[in-house]
Amino acid sequence: MLVKDVMKKNPVTVSPDTPVPEAKSIMTRQRINKLPVIDKNGAVVGILTRNDLIKASPSDATTLDMFELSYLLSRLTVERAMQKNVKTVSENETVEEAARLMEDYGIGCLPVMRGELLVGIITESDLFRTFIDFFSTHEPGARATFVLDEKPGQLTGICKALADFNSNIVSIVTILTTDAAHRRVTVKASGISKEQFAKIIESCGAQLEDIRNV
């Protein structure tokens, strides 16, 4: 799955000279928490989040009165509050690479580019929804997690046995275990009970860790 398949297209943007109160109003009105910042040439120069707005607001301990606070906030622009040196991602990048970038840099979103043109934004929420889709969470079935040797063809026997049982594989997700000699596999299949599924896994020499109907 690629970034362009899950991103929010044509995101709402602001310019560096947009007043902070206006940016806050846009977030509230559009029900969003992140705004790409675009300069007059259309280049992405920053990202503004709701947390940035909180940091830009005066402390509760300030001695300024309401009129002074309103005046200062009205003169504060997005450029002063935004995060610069923004990480971006291509619309044709994979979603797992987008997730890696967010994790590596400790960020919650990535502007999505088509060359130099901003075409979308991908956020943590988009990745959460993708994670749900990868596991076919909304589809019923028997879900099993088991461990196999990290060798070619280890999963083939289980897949064939499920096919012979006329069971349909809904999703498969695999990761290496900590010892790198084994692979942990999660399979969801329909048209089979968890008891029948467990017998297939054990007959193929895999180590069953968890199985349940979902």
Q: Structural class from helices and strands? A: alpha+beta
Instruction: Please provide the ordered H/E string of secondary-structure elements.
Output: HEHEEHHHEHEEHEHEEHE
| Overall morphology | elongated
Q: What profile does the largest beta sheet have? A: 4 strands, mixed
Q: Could you give the count of β-strands?
A: 10
Mean pLDDT: 91
Strand order of the largest sheet: 1-6-5-4
Number of helical stretches of at least 4 residues? 9
Q: How much helical structure, as a percent, in the residues?
A: 25-40%
- Rg of Cα set: 24 Å
Beta strand %: 25-35%
Straight-line distance between termini? 24 Å
- Unreliable stretches (pLDDT < 50, length at least 5) are 59-65
Overview of the structural elements:
With 214 residues, the chain is α+β, with helices and mostly antiparallel strands. The chain is built from 9 helices and 10 strands. The chain has helices at residues 3-6, 20-30, 50-56, 66-75, 78-81, 95-105, 124-134, 156-164, 194-203; strands spanning 8-9, 34-38, 44-49, 89-90, 109-114, 117-123, 142-149, 168-176, 182-190, 207-213. The chain has a 4-stranded mixed sheet with strand order 1-6-5-4. The longest helix has 11 residues, at 20-30. It is elongated and about 70 Å long.
